[in-house]
Structure formats: C-alpha cells, structure tokens
Amino acid sequence: MQVTETLSEGLKRELSFVVPASELASRLDKRLAEMKDKVRINGFRPGKVPAAHLKRLVGKSEMAQIIDTVIGDAIRTTVEERKERPALNPEVKLADTVDGEKLVEGQADLAFSASYELLPTFELKDISGVELERPVAEVSDAEVQEQLDRIAEGNRPFNAKDEGAKAENGDRVTIDFVGRIDGEAFEGGSAEGVDLVLGSGQFIPGFEEQLVGAKAGDEVTVKVTFPAEYPAAHLAGKAAEFAVTVKGVAAPGELALDDEWAKKLGMESLDKVKDAIRDQIRSGYEAATRAKVKRALLDKLDEAYDFALPTKLVDSEFETIWKQATEEMERAGRTFADEETTEEAARADYLKIAARRVRLGLVLSEVGEKNSVQVTDEEVSRALVERARQFPGQEKQVFDYYRSNPMALATLRAPLFEEKVVDFLLGQAKVTDKVVTKEELMKDPEEA
User: Would I find 4Fe-4S among this entry's keywords (predicted)?
Assistant: First the structure.
C-alpha cells in the first residue's frame, strides 16, 4: 500500500492511498477459500464447490466488503502511525480514475483519498491564580412563609354560596367558556368546568374583573385583548370575546395553618412542611449558584485560550444552535426584526457561540484526560434511571435503547464528565462566596 500526504494546512490533512489490485485479489482468494468449506450450493457436495464457480457467484459482493474493510483499516492504521487525532471521521473519496466495475472484479488498484481535520494541540493553563466569586443567597423566613401561603391558597376549601349570590373578588367561580376572534372560535379558547378564583390573575388581564357580580346561571360576554407579549403568537395583541356561562359560585372557607392541615398534605407537622419548602427553595438557589460560578469559570477559560478550531466541528455546533434558535422563533411567530437584529448578524453571533462551545469543550476534555477524571458505570446507570423516569410506562424501551446504542449512552456520560471537570477546576481556582439577594442570584446574566 502506498500512502502520500497531499494536504497539510493548519489542522487540515488529506492523504492519498493506493492499494494494489494484487493485494485485493489475494484477500478475496483467502476469503473464498474460507467460504468454500462452509458454503452450501445446490449440485455440489460441501467443500467441493470449485473456487472459480464460487467467485462467479459471490466474488463481486465479497470484494465490495473487502474494499470497505481495506479502506477503514488503511486510514486507521495510517492515522495511528502518524500519531494524529482526527476531530471527526475522515471523509473518503475514490479517485476519479478508478473504474468501479474493474475494481470489484479485482482488475484495478484501489485508489482513494481521506481528508480530515486534527484536534488542536495546546498547553493547559494553570488556573490556581484565577479568582472567582460564587454568589449565594440565604433562604429567608419570609420566602418560606410566602410559599407556604401559596400552597395554602391552592388547598383552601370553598363553600357554595346561596342561590342568587353574586361573585366577589376572592370567590371561586366554575365556568364554561368559548373564545372567539373576529367571530371565529380559536384553538385553546374553549373549556368546560373550569374553576377560577377571581382576583388570582390566572386569566388574561381584564377577564376576571368582568365576572365580579355574576351569579350561577348567568351568561356573560367577556371582552379582552391578549397582551402583545402573549406566548401564543397567533393570539398576541388581538381582541377577543368569550361567551362565559357561570355554573357555580363559592366563597373561600377558613384555613388554619396547623399540624392538622399539614397532615392533610401527607406531612407530619407544619414545621415539616416549612422544612420541605425551605429545602426546595435552597435547592433552586444552589442550582442557580452552580450555574453562575460555572459560567464565570467558563468565561475565564474562554479568555485564557485561543487556538485554531476544526471548522467542521464549529459548523456542526453552529447548525445545532441555529436550528434550535430558528425553530423557537418560528414557534413564537417572531422574526429577526422583532429581535432587533438581522439574519446575517444573528448568524455571526451564533457562529461565535458555536466556536466558544467547541473551544471550551476541547479544553474541558483535555483537562479531564490529563487529570484522569472518570465517570463510573454506576454514575451513568443512575443517569439512565433518571432519564427513564421521564418516560412513565416506557422505561424498558428507554433502557433497551441506551444500552444497545453506545452513541446515545455517550450523551448521558458527557454532561457527567463535564460537571466533574468543572468541579476539578473550581477546586484549583480561588473561589470566594459572595452573599447576594435572591433577585441578584436569579438575574439572567445577559440582563447584567
């Protein structure tokens, strides 16, 4: 086999391969000899099929398989000998001079090229001097009480009012309604038996107010305008009329927040309910803290590293980001003009994001490899269990899919590996806690 490097430019490489027809023919003869003793063909005793006859029957199909194997083995062996790390699988192209028919007949040399990009090499930076602030927020008693009150309101008993009694703010009305825009009913605008607490702000602004004073049996026409920022783009900013039938009116009953109330929720006591609420809020804060300090770390890494990237990796990442962004815009019925940008500018921005993701991914991978960061099978199994729980009733199918698909299983392992590498790096950097308010902790970094 003859191998020639035809391109070495930056991270790009291209190799030209020529495998003599004699080598291919030798492989085919060996394979046919192995098959001869096993194959069964009508008219011939086992092991007595003439090689020439067998070659006429399966020679071309077997040669096609041999060619695939030779190409794969040749590329893999050559890349290993060159001590190179391709970023993606090499692209293979048969030489224009190759006659496909003669090739599978074993009468022509196999000539092909393999083009690929290398993973970049770079020196890892010492981050022991990097200073990071980890924003933390304490859970206040007021927040716990606010959440407790919200839960209580959601479980407040209501008692039917006397016949003819009018609905007031705080009352619960049971309604049927049909919404129309320009006289036409619209999708999602109709429902029956809906419970609505007046003044709760559950419905479109202006809707609940128009039901104050209504009685059971009343039919009310509610006129509202959907907010301009309403999530459903086909309704945003449009005027609508709802034909509402009031089926019942109920007044809020007394609610005592005590141990007995807690037991109705399945908790031992009111203090246990408060503890559970506090833990839930704290868990949310810890997740936000983790996200903020991780982003700060990645920003520092992004500033510290600048090296050439494999264009195909960046392009692949960009396509993923772009598809997600444009699909979200389409679902929301928005345009680039609505986002105060243009498609060209948006593409440029997302390309920068793609490059950042690829660069940081390579850095984190290198850090993990050089420092022997490992994800255990047990950790992957736990992640798989959590994934399966997201599909109630289909757990077995989920388990079977991931266990039979190494690439899919890798998508569970990758984020675990990333988080472990982040933990390792945070352990190397100088991280100090900074107490912040809930609002500061939860603020979108882009708003800052």
Answer: no
- Sequence-separated contacts (24+) of 185-194 with Cβ below 8 Å: 186/234, 186/235, 186/240, 188/232, 189/240, 189/242, 193/247
Q: Do both 272 and 250 map to the same domain?
A: no
- Map residue 105 onto helix, strand or coil: coil
The whole-angstrom separation of Cα 173 and Cα 202 is: 13
pTM of the full structure: 0.75
Supply the CATH number for residue 183's domain: 3.10.50.40
Mean pLDDT, the chain cut into blocks of 10 residues (448 residues total) = 94 96 88 71 63 70 90 95 94 89 86 96 93 95 93 87 93 95 91 93 93 95 91 85 96 89 91 95 96 96 95 96 92 84 95 96 96 95 94 92 91 95 96 94 69
Residue type, 373: V
Query: Do 434 and 394 share a structural domain?
Result: yes
The CATH number for 372's domain is: 1.10.3120.10
User: What is the C-alpha to C-alpha distance for residues 403 and 410, in angstroms, rounded to an integer?
Assistant: 10
DSSP state of 49: -
Contact between 360 and 302 under an 8 Å Cβ cutoff? The reply is yes
Q: What is the DSSP letter of 208?
A: G
